[in-house]
Amino acid sequence: MMRQNLGRSTRSIYLSLACLSLALHLLLAFFCLSVLQTACVLPTSSSSSSIPKADTLHRQPVFHASSSSAASSSHKLPTSDKHHKLNSNTWHHVGKGSLGEAAEQEKTLIGAGKVIQKVKGHSKLEALFRHPLYNLPRPEPQKDDWLLRVKTREDVKETESEEEEGDDSISISWTRDVKTHPPWLRFHLGISRWELYNRKDPNLVQLTHSLATQRILGKTGGTQLKLLISFPNYGQALLKPMKQPRDAETNENLFYFSDFERHNAEIAAFHLDRLLGFNRIPPVVGRLINVTTEIREVTTDHRLSSTFFTSPVGNMCFYGLCEYYCSTEHPVCGQPHALEVSLAAMLPDLSLAPRRSWRSPWRRAYSRTKLAQWEKDPTYCDTVKQTPPYNQGTRLVDLIDMAVLDFLMSNMDRHHYETFEKFGNETFLLHLDNGRAFGRHSRDEPSILAPLQQCCRIRRSTLLRLRLLSLPSFRLSDVMRESLAQDPLAGVAPLLSEPHLSALDRRLASVLQVVQASLRDTSCLLSY
């Protein structure tokens, strides 16, 4: 009898434990589902202090002076609809009273990545690119939002007569089948109004692979020893050679305009720009080339070939023809023939896609004694904000994005920037020519952040990504190290030394401190 009662009680205990376990599993599943939904779905914007919807989040500034005009992201679709026009009445200004609520919502959004990383268990870089801040939805691109397109048969017929009457320039025809296009052409056809490339485009891997492996057909010279090289299928790339060791710091007694250009700086700048979610630097890859067989023997530039010589220790060297550092005192040498270089994908020819060059309002004086106006006038931005094209649209926050990028990599040589003429002022800025970045890791240059400090403005999505990259689970130096490890030259040696990677974290903290100090300023309002 006792055994029978004991058996019944044991079965009851087992049944109770099973029910309890089932209930706990259901509760855990419900909790995980609610957390993931919170991570991926942004709250609806209200009339006062809520975060905007996901389709507008990436084009909102976080703070700016109340007297300035509104700014939005370079990823905005242009339209004639009045609802989408940008003017001073577009934004609803919010005082400091709502800052706490907004901060809590931002913490929820930024914290979404922690959940993803723990559940999936992938690398920090993969987790970063899966985060909602790097996967914001955007409208479908319209016909005019693409920089280039393959002509239809009707287009060809319309232009045949014009081509017959024109000059004898070579015309290249491609089929409409994208699979038959070389990677560089697919890159050109993928340029849109909002970005230079789509990070998720599989062609990006094919393009960098072709830059690193394709046979070099020819080479011509450039300025400060930049070489334009040619590949099969009419592809081209801009080559910058290694001129100093990767871990060498710029001499502190040199002015910014006297610094060398570094091949690894171009590579690292591309990766950093991608990690910040900008996608405004053409793809750059490192490559180990043979100075003799891949430069001297294939170049069509006789002036360049005349600068080759053999050094006293038997290394093949050349110095090229350019304005700076092109002399026998500043040669580029192989070891004895092997040379590290960076190769940047070329943008479409100017005859197909004209670009406009803009003088930066925060251009330096490029003088040993003089200061630029912005260095002497703390209210300088008030004038800039009233000057086209910075008085409307996204141009000012685009410029501040570029300033943040330059500060992180310590690039003081940003005197001009370019845009594609086709898109007018409704487009992103091209972040070109970054060879003088990453020169000094032991010292930061706060003046690079002058646009951010003086204008009291930053794009909302940029700030959220910066805060995300400051978290231990997405530390900027860690994801940068992992991203650079994908470059072919990383097998030779790290593209950035550890002091440079540590400097990224230090400078990121400085940017966030500047933003926080601006939010405490009574002249700055949190804006949505």
TrEMBL record:
Example GO BP: enamel mineralization
Compositionally biased intervals (Low complexity): 65-74
Family membership: Belongs to the FAM20 family.
Protein name, as recorded: Family with sequence similarity 20 member C, like
InterPro entries: FAM20, FAM20_C
Keywords: ATP-binding, Disulfide bond, Glycoprotein, Golgi apparatus, Manganese, Metal-binding, Nucleotide-binding
Principal place of residence: Golgi
Occurrences of domain FAM20 C-terminal (ranges): 308-520
